[in-house]
Structure formats: C-alpha cells, structure tokens
Amino acid sequence: MVVGGGGREHALVRALGRSPRRPKVICAPGNPGIARDAEVHRIDPTDAGALVALARERGVDLAVIGPEAPLVAGVADAFRDAGIAAFGPSAAAARLEGSKAFAKEVMEAAGVPTARAVTVTALEDGLAAVERLGTPVAVKADGLAAGKGVVVARTAAEARDALEDCLVRGAFGDAGRAVVVEEGLTGPEVSLLAISDGTRVARFPAARDYKPIGDGNTGPNTGGMGSVSPVPDISDALADALVDRVHRPVVAELAARGIPFGGVLYAGLMMTPDGPRVLEFNVRFGDPETQALLPRLEDDLLELLEAAAAGSLPDERPVRVSPEPCVAVVLAAAGYPGRARTGDPIWGLDQAAALGAEVYHAGTAYGHDGNIVTAGGRVLAVAARGPDVWGARRAAYEAAERIEFDGRQYRRDIASGMSRAGSRAG
User: Fold this and answer.
1) Within 13 Å, how many C-alpha atoms sit on residue 400's CB side?
2) Residue 149 pLDDT
3) Which terminus has fewer CB within 10 Å in the chain: N or C?
C-alpha cells in the first residue's frame, strides 16, 4: 500500500509496479492517474485507523508512506504497531521535518554543517535576530507548511513582513508559531536522498529542485516546479562524501537517542563558497525530485523498501540507476502558489504519454462529466530520460507541451543551466 495522492506517490506506485515480483499495489487516497496503475481507496492519508483497517482487509505486506503529514502524525507507527511492515520513519524521527528547530539541534549535536540560525516565538526577538544575522536572511516557519513556509528576505522590511506573517497574522497556523531565522547563504542547491534502515544508508544520485514559480528563480517559492537528476556539478565521489558528512552522522545521532531512522532522509544542501551547508531535512521522498529519480532506478524498489523496513539493507552501496539523465517539469494551475484555480479540464495526457514520457498526476480529479480536471496547485509532472541532460530536457518539454488546461503555467528553464556539453551522465 502506498499512502498519499500526489505526484510523488504516483511515481512510487509506478516504480513498485515495475518490480519483477509483480506486486499488487493499492493506494490511499490516490488520484485519477494513480487509478490507472493501482487500486485506489478514498481514505484520508492521516487517518491511521482507517488505513490500518484497509491494510488488514487487503492483506498488505508493506505500507509505504509518501507525504510528510502522515509521517509526522505517526501513521508509520500505527502500521508497525499493527504488525504490518512500514517504510517511513516514526513520528519521533519525523520531527526532523516536522520541526526545523529540532532539525537544527540534531545537526549541531551530530556536527553537520548548516547555517547559523535563531529560533524565535515573538516578533521583537525575530527582528533582533535579523539585525544580528544581517540580510539576506531566511525566515522559516518551524512546522509543516506544504513547502511554502520559507521566505528569503533581501531587506529588513521583507524579513519583518515574513515574521509578521507567521507570528502576528498566523498565515501558517500552528506551523508558524515558532520561526527559525537563518543567515542567508549563496551557492547552487542540491537535493541528496538516501534510504536508511536505521543503521545503514544507501544513497540515490543527486538531484536539483527548482522552487520559485518563475523562470530564472523569480517569484515566490512553491513546492517545486521541476527537477533534474543527475546534477553535473555533484559527482558520485562528492555525493558519497556528502552522505558521509550529513546523512550518516544524523542517522547515528538519532540511533544514539533511541530514535532509529528508517525511511528516506532527504537533505537539501547549498554548496556555498565555504563548503556544503544543510538548508533542510525532509523525511520522505522529495516532490518533484522523486519524479526525476525513480525513472532512472534499476534496482528493485520493492526489495529496497522492504529491506529498509525490516532493518536489513544488505550493504551501503548507492542504489543502481540508469546512466541516462531525467528531467521532470511541473505543470501548475492558475493562481498557484497562491489560491489555485480548480476544475479546469485537462487535455493531451495520452498524447504526452505516447511520446514515451512519464506523466505523473498530482492535483487532478474527475469532473462532473468524468473527464480529468485540475484539483490542486501542482497538477502534473512530466518526466523524460535522454542520452544527456539536454536530450532529457527536450523530451520532457516536448511531452509537457502536449498537455493543455486553462491557466496552465510552468517554468521553461528547468535544467537549462546545464549545457549540452558536459551534461552527460558519467
């Protein structure tokens, strides 16, 4: 069973379905695209009791929890308490994503490089932190905010506005009652994901996510407008070194606290002139990085996740992937990342898939006439492989442009900074 109903979960369902063991895959709650690949059940992904009951009824052997909210709410714990193997960290370990302040404290204890930061709960303390750290400065809601609780403020006025959003206006509810004010850093960002069984770690290749809504990294942050893997400036040797510097110390620190981390540890890193710095941790597969990583996977995902859930990863080698790069382009609804418009009919899904691209549904639903319509901010992700990044990018955009809906918006520069020369996977 895959828990969740977004683009990440669609990619997980597809990859699990490619296992040579030909598993029966079900998904809750799923979406119209997932329904083409798996049996779906309309259950709230945070309703642990209903999910466990369905798993027992359907004889589920392994539950894979996709989104962060169910993990922070303890859904993985509920499956394990019921005697059902689950891939995903406990609620205690999921605090790495559920609380940015907790993640900072763990990083400090584990000796992981990260930016200087201050956690505040009052506006005046936040303003004092901004004055001390200077600008640019990152203002981050402590809790889960669907990828939108971070503002990189270029001026003191922007920082004040972001602090007031969280601490005065309550824009992010409980998630913004505490705020992490973090020094601004410069450099290219990279996403590095690794599967852990609580002791051993097996990394994926590096990926790069594109957060701002507009071309050239302009406009407000989103949950992610596209991704690419591999990243030409992050070699395998460097990725190994980063895992040694970041992932393994964090897994060891949590184990020493009696909080074994079993699942995916995602590190969002900035490669600054002074070396790598961790910007954030996620405790699950990234979205949209997963949509660029899993099409490259040559290992059996089912075996990997089962081994991690059982605490028995066979070794710490990187997962096996195709040398062909993959680019994923997100198609978003009108109004996103603000109030997204819903209900717009979507055309061209089959035409895009016919070009060989992976079309992953995220914010889709069935309309009154049975056709598929928009139902969220990020509607679809279109992913394609190629002989090099340039070729993968061309294939992804060619497929994406076959899909139409009113108000469709997407970035046209995903992976464009990676020149055709030197962009081949090595």
Assistant:
1) 27
2) 81
3) C
Q: Which helix (H) or strand (E) holds 278?
A: strand 275-282
Question: Tokens 């809601």 correspond to what residue?
Answer: 141
- The pLDDT assigned to 143 comes to 86
**3-state secondary structure (DSSP) of residue 417:** coil
- 80: which residues sit within 8 A by CB, 6+ positions away? 86, 90
37: number of Cβ within 10 Å: 16
Cα–Cα distance measured from residue 347 to residue 331, given in angstroms and rounded to the nearest whole number: 13
d(CA 270, CA 70): 27
Count of all residues that appear for the chain in the document: 426
**Radius of gyration from C-alpha coordinates of the chain:** 20
Residues 6+ positions from 14 with CB-CB distance below 8 Å:
37, 294, 358, 360
Judge contact between 183 and 117, C-beta under 8 A: yes
Q: Burial of 290 by CB count in 10 Å (0-12 exposed, 13-18 middle, 19+ buried)?
A: buried
Q: How far is CA 251 from the centre of its chain?
A: 19
Residue 3: Cβ-neighbour burial (10 angstroms; 0-12, 13-18, 19+): buried
Answer for the pair 106, 283: CB distance below 8 angstroms, yes or no. no
Give the DSSP letter of residue 243: I
Q: Which residues contact 301 (CB under 8 A, 6 or more apart)?
A: 12, 15, 16, 18, 19, 294
- Taken in order of first residue, the domains within the chain and their CATH numbers are 2-91 (3.40.50.20), 116-183 (3.30.1490.20), 189-309 (3.30.470.20), 326-400 (3.90.600.10)
One DSSP character per residue, 26-77 reads EEEE--TTGGGTSEE----TT-HHHHHHHHHHHT-SEEEE-SHHHHHTTHHH
Low-confidence ranges of the chain (pLDDT < 50): 419-426
CB of 46 within 8 A of CB of 75? Answer: yes
Say how far apart CA 22 and CA 31 lie, in whole Å: 21
Tell me how crowded residue 19 is: count the other CB atoms within 10 A of its CB.
17
SS3 for 190?
strand
Read off the amino acid at residue 92: A
Distance CA 377, CA 381 (A): 12
Q: Is 243 exposed, middle or buried (0-12, 13-18, 19+ CB in 10 A)?
A: buried
Write down the pLDDT at residue 220. Answer: 87
Q: And the tokens for 192?
A: 């590095």
- Phi, psi dihedrals of residue 109, rounded to the nearest 5°: -65, -35
Tens of pLDDT along 38-53? 999 999 999 999 999 9
Query: Cα angle vertex 206, ends 25, 154, to 5°?
Result: 115
